[in-house]
Design a protein that fits this description.
By secondary structure, this protein is mainly alpha-helical. Among the domains are: 69 residues, no CATH class; 210 residues, MFS general substrate transporter like domains (Growth Hormone, Chain: A, Up-down Bundle), CATH 1.20.1250. The strands form two sheets. Strands 1-4 form a two-stranded antiparallel sheet. The protein has a two-stranded antiparallel sheet with strand order 2-3. The longest helix is centred in the last third of the chain and has 29 residues. The two termini are 26 Å apart.
Length: 525
């Protein structure tokens, strides 16, 4: 007998769970905006050197005048970072080529740049600084708030994360300089991590074992749909400040309704607050239409169901406990690799949409839409094949697609884009699985600490992903080899993790180690 049995007695997956999961999932519509925002707020518009007293007077009909001031690059389009030292008026009537201008003297953009406003009216590239790397936010998405939630509770940290994201995210739009922008994005990134990880734990800890797969997959669809919402918002506004406000302001609403949430009863019991846990269980029973259970489930009944867990709650757990015992150490080491590689491959594809040569807004919609079939496949695999096979397979398939793209000629842009979209779909499915899988592998007493610890590796992966792109200067195929190789390694390592399909959530570290001992006994017999 355990907490899972109590959940079944108060209605299983009833009205409360439906409302609870829905309210926790709605902010997911805008979490994609937070993670992928730089595709639009830090998009690099077409640009060329500013020509004093001339550029301001140019319009579309007089654009040919640029030929006299701006050299052409290898694709016969105006160069971005150089201009002729002296005006070359004869080039206006010449046919565009490199030969007729290769010997002319050029210089750097001394007066700055002129930006095309067709794709972006304003971005931080054109407004705050001349160049930006695309990794400035993810560095702050560490497991810090997960450590706090193990101490102060899931609900409290989630509410604070909503508020912090709403306030600091909105104020980011007022940034007068790049330094201020970076500070705000850093602090916003901390709250993003708090929202994602605490929402996952609150869902998992209030739903029955058999509903976890369906709930986890459906919740991920909110993030998927949010990617398409981001494309629509960015296309309609095209100004980075307005986009920033549009995707952050709704978190004030999430902050106000989040007070309805029930704190995790498991966490309350394990932190010596059984009476509060009992009140939340009674509340759940009433909402689920089981008011009679408020008389049957007493404090004694609750503590008898979780006697072993209550005893373990007297211990204080830290991140070092993730590595002390054999099974926990194996789980943590494997998950670190899987989280890193999943994020590494995902953001390698998703955070540089301009490289595909397709309209960036259309590309964002396509990248979002492919997640629907990919996650439906993942749902079927999770339900019938289990977490371990699904996790490993998604990573290996995404790796094979990334490798296949190496052999596709660059002029076959449609094929290359299609393969990239397919690879992104499977890395998305891998993300869906790993969030669910991690929540089921770690016990309640250290679940948030564990999720924060291993998901930190995902943040490192998302930081490393854009940096790897510069390797194409050494060898064009090298970034794909690195992304694909990482996914292959993680795919095989995922098969080393224990299966959790239809297995009740562990509440203590001893529960995790006991399952391992039971499995070893079965193998011996």
């Amino acid at each position: 007998m355990g907490f899972a049995d109590l959940l079944d007695e108060v209605g299983g997956f009833g009205r409360f769970q439906m409302i609870h999961v829905t309210l926790l999932s709605i902010p997911g519509l805008l979490m994609a905006s937070q993670n992928l925002l730089n595709n639009f707020t830090a998009g690099v518009p077409e640009h060329h050197c500013r020509i004093p007293n001339i550029t301001a007077a140019l319009n579309e009909s007089a654009a040919a005048l640029l030929r006299a001031f701006i050299p052409l690059d290898s694709s016969l389009t105006p160069a971005r970072c150089s201009r002729y030292t002296d005006a070359q008026w004869h080039l206006i009537t010449d046919k565009p080529s490199h030969t007729n201008a290769s010997d002319l003297q050029t210089e750097a953009c001394a007066e700055g740049w002129t930006y095309d406003k067709t794709e972006f009216i304003s971005s931080i590239v054109s407004e705050l600084l001349p160049f930006i790397h695309k990794i400035l936010k993810v560095i702050s998405e560490s497991g810090l708030y997960s450590l706090f939630s193990c101490r102060f509770g899931r609900k409290g940290m989630l509410i604070w994360s909503y508020f912090q994201l709403a306030v600091l995210g909105t104020f980011t739009a007022l940034s007068p300089s790049y330094v201020v922008y970076c500070i705000f994005r850093f602090l916003t990134g901390m709250s993003v991590s708090g929202v994602i990880l605490n929402a996952v734990s609150l869902k998992v800890e209030w739903i029955p074992t058999k509903a976890r797969t369906l709930v986890g997959t459906i919740s991920s669809f909110f993030f998927t749909f949010g990617q398409m919402i981001l494309a629509g918002v960015a296309y309609s506004l095209k100004d980075w400040r307005k986009i920033q406000v549009a995707v952050c302001l709704p978190f004030f609403a999430f902050f106000f309704y989040s007070w309805w949430y029930s704190e995790s009863a498991r966490w309350l019991v394990l932190n010596g607050r059984s009476e509060e846990a009992l009140k939340h269980l009674h509340r759940v029973a009433k909402i689920n239409g089981k008011p009679e259970m408020t008389e049957k489930i007493t404090l004694e009944v609750l503590e008898s169901h979780m006697q072993k867990e209550v005893q373990s709650s007297k211990s204080i757990y830290t991140v070092f406990d993730l590595l002390k015992t054999p099974t926990m150490r194996k789980i943590s080491m494997c998950l670190m690799v899987v989280w890193f590689s999943t994020s590494f491959a995902y953001y390698g594809l998703a955070m540089d949409l301009q490289k595909f040569g397709v309209n960036i807004y259309l590309m964002q919609i396509i990248f979002g839409a492919v997640d629907f079939p990919a996650k439906l496949v993942a749902l079927l695999m999770l339900s019938f094949l289990g977490r371990r096979i699904t996790q490993g397979t998604c990573l290996l398939v995404s790796a094979s697609v990334i490798f296949a793209n190496i052999f596709v000629p660059k002029d076959m842009q449609i094929t290359r884009t299609a393969l990239a979209v397919l690879g992104k779909g499977f890395t998305s499915a891998s993300f869906t699985c790993i969030y669910l899988f991690t929540g089921e592998l770690y016990p309640t007493v250290i679940r948030q600490t564990g999720m924060g610890f291993v998901s930190t590796m995902a943040r490192i992966g998302s930081m490393a992903a854009p940096a790897v792109l510069i390797l194409d200067e050494i060898l064009p195929a090298l970034p794909s080899i690195v992304y694909g190789g990482s996914a292959v390694l993680a795919g095989f390592i995922a098969f080393l993790l224990p299966e959790t399909l239809d297995i009740p959530l562990p509440d203590t570290i001893e529960d995790v180690e006991e399952k391992r001992r039971q499995k070893l006994k079965q193998i011996q017999h």
